[in-house]
Amino acid sequence: MLSREWFTAAALAALALPGLPRSKPAVIALAKRAGWQHPEAEGRLWRRRRGRGGGVEYHCSVLPAAAQAVLARMSAAGAAEGDGRAALLALLAAVDLEALVAAHAIARQVHRERFGREPDAARLRRWTAALYGVLCETPADGEGAAGC
């Protein structure tokens, strides 16, 4: 059982789980396309967020199996360790380092070819994250393009 079962679109985007978009608007668009927020599913698949700002939270059961598996590992690691370090290690274990290194190299090369100079650190991080997301997108067969 997960220690946390309900997540906002922003939280899901920030977790960068496999099979999910990496931005809040994209998660909301996915939720609409997939029917996560169907009126009859209120309370089971989604609920209105309590507290300041309102919004919506989605139940972990609506997430792709790979995302649920990562959340379960994070939850188990966090419970065993008792702090956030184990959860971070579990999340890092889910990262495909070969795909991340490839994305970093591609981002540097493209920037050098396009602008004739090395990218600054912030730009390189953004480009690497974007390329890593493309390399690890989950196609219809459920397997990541780079085995992510």
TrEMBL record:
InterPro entries: DNA-bd_dom_put_sf, Mu-type_HTH, WH-like_DNA-bd_sf. This is HTH Mu-type domain-containing protein. GO terms for molecular function: DNA binding. Residues 5-79 form the HTH Mu-type domain.
